[in-house]
Amino acid sequence: MKISKKWLQEFVFLPDSLSAEELGKELTLRTVEVEGVEDQAKNLNHIIVAQIKSIEKHPNADKLRVCQVDAGVEIVQIVCGGSNLEVGMKVVLAKIGATVLWHGQGDPIIMEKATLRGVDSYGMICTSDEVGLLAMFPKKDDHEVVDLTHLKDKAGTPLAKALHLDDVSIEVDNKSLSNRPDLWGHIGMAREVATIYHKKFTVATPPEIKAGSEMKLSVTVEDATLCPRYMAVALSGIHVEASPGWMQKRLEACGIRPINNIVDITNYVMLEIGQPCHAFDASKIAEQKIIVRRAKEAEKFVTLDQKEHTLTSDMLMIADGEKSLALAGIMGGLHSGINENTTSIVFESATFEAGSIRKTSTRLGLRTDSSARFEKSLDPVNALLALRRLVELTLQICKGSAVASPVVDLYPKKPGAKIIATSFEFLEGKIGMSLDHKKVVDILERLGFTIEKGKKGALKITVPSWRATKDISIAEDIVEEVIRIIGYENVPSTLPVFSITPPRQNSVKVLERKIKELLALESCFTETYNYSFESPEWLQKLGVDSSLHLELENPIAKDRPLIRRSLIPNLIENVESNLHRFDEIKMFETGRVYKIEEAGERVEAKDDGLLPRQDTYLGLVYAKKSETTPFFVLSKVIADVFARLHVAVEIIPAENESFAATPFVHPGRFAFLKVAGTIVGRMSELHPSTAKNLGISQRLAFGEINLNILSDHQLEEVSYSPLSVYPDVVRDIAIVLEKNVMHANLVAALRSVDPLIVSVELFDVYEGERLGENKKSMAYHITYRDTQKTLTTAEVDDVHKKVLDTLQKNFAAEIRK
Amino acid sequence: MQKELENLKKNFESQIKQITNFLALEDLEQKFFSRKSGAFTELMKGLKDLADDKRKEAGLLLNTLKAELENNLQHKKSELEMASMGDLARSESIDVTQPYLGETAKGHLNPNTIIQYQLEDLFASMGFMVWDGPELESDYYNFTALNIPPDHPARDMQDTFYVKGHSDWVMRTQTSSFQVRAMQKFGVPLKLIVPGRCFRNESTDPRHEHTFYQMEGLVVGEKITFADMKGVFQAVADHLYGVGTKIRLMPKLYPFVEPGVRGELSCFICQGKGCRVCKNSGWLEAMPGGMVHPNVLREGGIDPEKYQGFAFGFGLNRLSMLKYGIEDIRLFQSGDLRFLQQF
User: Fold this and answer.
1) Phi (first) and psi of residue B176, to 5 degrees
2) What band does B80 get if pLDDT is binned at 50, 70 and 90?
3) How many DSSP H helices and E strands does chain B contain?
4) Do B201 and A554 touch (CB under 8 A)?
5) Can you give the residue ranges of the FDX-ACB domain (chain A) (predicted)?
6) Contacts for B90 with CB less than 8 Å, ≥ 6 apart
7) Residues B28, B83: one domain?
8) Are the beta carbons of A498 and B108 separated by less than 8 Å?
9) Which residues, numbered 144 to 203 in chain B, qualify as contacts with chain A under a Cβ-Cβ cut-off of 8 Å?
10) Burial of A370 from C-beta contacts in 10 A (0-12 / 13-18 / 19+)
């Protein structure tokens, strides 16, 4: 909303030295967010009123004219393509040095002397959008220049002076006004400014309306919930014409285009008091009977912007006995409005229920200055003030007009005064500082509150009607009123006082952070974030069944409506999108996955309904050009992380039945991660045919771990073993085995051969034709140690022989020599 | 014997002086101390021909001299070594600006995570719990419990993601959804932060994302004041952007706090003078908050007559964008390694 500084100054004394910027800043800090200020004259330097003295054809261009123009002190030559140039016409001349918008578009440019097709030009005769005055001078065609012939001002007069553009507009963010219905008019804003600056605030009350008897006017309100107050009065002797210049200027300063005297008056009152009003042509209301009723289901209605709407029965209409006249509080109908033939009118000033207005205007996609105000819960008292002001202005501006009917006021349920009981102690306890009690009372009284002081600092505060509709209802609201005017900058900064009990820890979050830091800082993986949403096309390419996926009702990215059940699909997408730039990709993500079939948190404390389970997972992906078994790289990373966590993990072959659920896994390279007998995660390589489908040419390994399950496992204590004083003996062996013999089983068997064996370490694996099909060669370092004495060769030989026997007997190993 | 020793010594000293390299020094050593034919060895051999008393005396002299000469020899060796090291500047010089050519690797945390953990550490040091709740949340905890009744504009379809087939489920629009859960779970006194992922049904552009991160803070106790909230905001500003960062607060409406404020930081890029980032205002919007609304305390089972507190919800992406000068919020979720590997 735009606020005019001049208009504010009608109600509160503000020195001219107070800049609009300063005013805007104070309002922002204490009341509402000001988005900017706009000085009307600021961009009109070197732009003047000038008169065309002669027009000649341009020798080299059909569409251009060469004009001699009286600029006051001199005659200047201007080349111009205006469509409406005439000798004697007064025009807007941008002289050299002026800033204009070329054809009303792009960045502002500074006028210089120019040569157009060989003819010199010393400035520009402007169209309205070139000087930012399109609202004041709408264009009929693109090349129409502004015609100022009606002005009495002499050639050479600065344009700002001629048009009286001496106001400053303050642009307020409408969102920040959503709880302040009183600030949607200048009077309310002026009260606020007067309070901030400690200035006197004066508003003249419009006189009571002297009823007429020429016309009968009757109103029936069928739904008093949606229309708590309805006021109307008829006036006759109306002559529709342009409104006076002062009124037009005010409207323009607030960004509203003047239309005619009657419409302008309703807009003026709306901007002044904040109460939207409507004027009907009285002759178009059948029998002067107004009925406020709900629309008929599927009723068609054409609003005055010539758009047809289909209504529903919960929308409120203003109608007569025959037809609908207006969408209550939003917009009038095309056929009931004021036109140049109107001679009698009915003014409506009413209060409509906020929620209903908001719903209707949202549903119809019809937001107006009127609906924006009604949906904030307006003060019914203002309906009366506004009607009086409408009549006062009409009688003043429209000569010959007279009140033609009694004043209708249907206001069945007047709300009682809203009273809040609180105390200085309460206010101080909330804010955390001691307050000057006199100042507190002064602030509240200036804002319109009535204060009754009780014993021991007790306060009985009556809320003014314009703040009582929604905005202020509890003592905490009073805290805000006081603190914002005192100024947040005057509140001290303190820190809360608490006992020093260490905070409870969330084991999943602790684990998540530990793992993230290990992966990034030790394993050199990069953390990525992906959306919680997935694309059905991508899942289809992966072969994932999405029947269990939850789905968004209203996805923003239409291609990603599914709510993820695993981190892997999006991570694979990350690999795909980075592969053309990087030879090696090591990425991870932690985040929630959502499983409808598992029970999560309660929907409400006292409700048995449960949300889906939303465990935190870790997902990892690894791919590298020319790496044929990325599985081993990833399993090493996982093993390293678990080692740091001091949790023993087993990587075991996955069971066959789990392939079906994840068809994109490599069936020969698929493992579960098991901790203390529980499966906490899984890892695999991408199925080569899936990879091909996705256009991924590299081998890719991925894994995921459920951190909620993992966090249930007690981390093992690290214990120290004394350093051995006796030397280790290391023997290497190489064996040829069937391919299906597993390393883990072999190690376990060897470790149990004899306590002297302290480590069995794989250092080479080889598969090849020479070994024969389904064979592999593995080589191990076996370390023997006795903590009590130096081992003799004989002792080691003895155990080593058992090792070889075990390998031969239990694993059918062929010992290579 | 005495004479012979003196000659030998003179001889040795004059020769060692001439020596300028290790090879010559080795030759000298051989000449005097070689087991087979060294001058010294010869003298030692001669000892056995002397009478007992003389032999003892001469042996002593001989050993003393040997130690002395060997010491000289050692000394000369060090001298030569030093001389040759002095030349290292030339002989072993490298281009120190050249990078290591072997494989190197570094891992990276998402810049949002970095800011999140910095703040978690700050708040943990002040005794706050770090917790999180459901991201797919009930309508009740996301709205109703927070004093946002069913017909409130904040619940409009255009702002909230709803879940198909479950009209009372939403993707949480704010980490505030954990406020009432926290009150019910932990009671008072309460001090916690909730960093986490939130969702709004918004078209994305460089300043807007439908998926973003917030850090909710909630403090409830008997005498928790607005001034305390201001103090905590100041602590965060100092921690993230340096001591001396100014904050200012102004009124703003949020249904679940009263009074509600938005907090701004003095622009740390231009020190408040005005620049592109702060749009020439000198201030950066970053910290919304307020005193917990009594209706919210009631929903959490806390008596608002006895307890009060404050809540805030920082936009983590925003703080991170300010800190690193990131101009496009969509980069956080882009999965683009060129972006992620800068942090």
Assistant:
1) -60, -20
2) confident
3) 12, 10
4) yes
5) 724-816
6) none
7) yes
8) no
9) 151, 153, 156-157, 161-166, 168-169, 171, 181, 184, 186, 189, 191-192, 197, 199, 201-203
10) buried
Helix (H) or strand (E) holding A317: strand A316-319
Task: For residue B198, tell me if it sits in a domain.
Answer: yes
Same domain for B219 and B86, yes or no, is: no
Q: Are A75 and A52 in contact (CB under 8 A)?
A: no
- Using 50, 70 and 90 to split pLDDT, how confident is the model at A805? very high
Residue B203, domain extent: 112-340
Q: For residue A463, list its beta bridge partners.
A: A418
The 3-class secondary structure across B129-192, one letter per residue, is EECCCCCEEEHHHHCHHHCCCCCCHHHCCCCCCEECCEEEEEECCCHHHHHHHHHHHHCCCEEE
Q: Complex ipTM, two decimals?
A: 0.85
Strand B129-130 to B190-199 pairing: parallel
Closest CA to B170 of B132, B200, B148, B202: B200
- Mean pLDDT of all residues in B83-91: 78
Split at pLDDT 50, 70, 90, the class of B81 is: confident
Residues B42 and B124 in one domain: no
Angle at the Cα of B185 (from B181 to B187), degrees rounded to 5? 105
Number of domains in chain B: 2
* Per-residue pLDDT, B105: 83
Nearest CA in chain B to A527: B109
Is residue A47 a contact partner of residue A55, using CB atoms and an 8 Å limit? no
| B134/B186 same-domain check | yes
Domain assignment of residue B97, yes or no: no
Distance CA A218, CA A237 (A): 20
Residues 6+ apart with CB under 8 A from A252: A135, A136, A258
CB atoms within 10 A of CB B78: 9
Q: How many CB pairs under 8 A join A and B?
A: 239
Interface test with B, best of A479, A480, A613 (most B CBs within 10 A): A480
- Could you tell me if B23 and B69 lie in one domain? yes
> Which of the residue ranges A569-578, B47-56, B298-307 would you say has the lowest mean pLDDT?
B47-56
- CATH number for the domain that contains residue B331: 3.30.930.10
CB-based contacts of B269: which residues, under 8 Å, 6+ apart? Answer: B275, B277, B278, B325
- How far is it, in rounded angstroms, from Cα A143 to Cα A27? 41
User: Does A479 contact B259 at a Cβ distance shorter than 8 Å?
Assistant: yes
Q: What are phi and psi of A238, to 5 degrees?
A: -85, 135
Domains and CATH numbers, chain A: 2-31+174-197 (no CATH), 42-162 (2.40.50.140), 218-410 (3.50.40.10), 418-485 (3.30.56.10), 507-711 (3.30.930.10), 729-816 (3.30.70.380)
> Hey, is A671 helix, strand or coil?
strand
Residue B229 shares a structural domain with residue B179: yes
Residue set of the binding site of B for Mg(2+) = 258
Q: Specify the DSSP class assigned to residue A792.
A: P
Give A614's contacts in chain B (Cβ within 8 Å).
Answer: 134-136
| Residue B101 lies inside a defined structural domain of this protein | no
Task: Nearest chain B residue to A376 by CA: give it.
Answer: B153
The reply to whether B177 and B237 lie within a common domain is yes
From B37, B58, B91, the end of a domain falls on B91
The pTM score is: 0.83
Q: B65 and B207 share a domain?
A: no
